[in-house]
Amino acid sequence: MLPQRLKKAITDNPKKLANLIDLVNLPSTVREFVGQSQISRLGCFLRVWSYIKQNNLQDPNNKNIVNCDEKLRSILLGKPRVELAELPSLIKLHFPKEPK
């Protein structure tokens, strides 16, 4: 069951949802991290999030900060610390916009 706000967003702009769930050929750095040659942007974000949780990379004092290890740093532009709010935009950089 989808929240009402999400339902409205999907019906108002279905192309936005397609951008999240379309499979994309990944660059080599992300391909090594994810372990697949194709994945959606949403799928990639979920893989990164589960990696962060499994490896306890959230700052214990501030859960909005992620302390990146070497593997995560390779796909997040080499940043040693990232705010959770930055995460989607950093992942989005690996998914080029398709020409109209």
UniProtKB/TrEMBL annotation:
<dbReference type="Pfam" id="PF02201">
    <property type="entry name" value="SWIB"/>
</dbReference>
<feature type="domain" description="DM2">
    <location>
        <begin position="19"/>
        <end position="97"/>
    </location>
</feature>
<protein>
    <submittedName>
        <fullName>Upstream activation factor subunit UAF30</fullName>
    </submittedName>
</protein>
<dbReference type="InterPro" id="IPR003121">
    <property type="entry name" value="SWIB_MDM2_domain"/>
</dbReference>
<dbReference type="InterPro" id="IPR019835">
    <property type="entry name" value="SWIB_domain"/>
</dbReference>
<dbReference type="InterPro" id="IPR036885">
    <property type="entry name" value="SWIB_MDM2_dom_sf"/>
</dbReference>
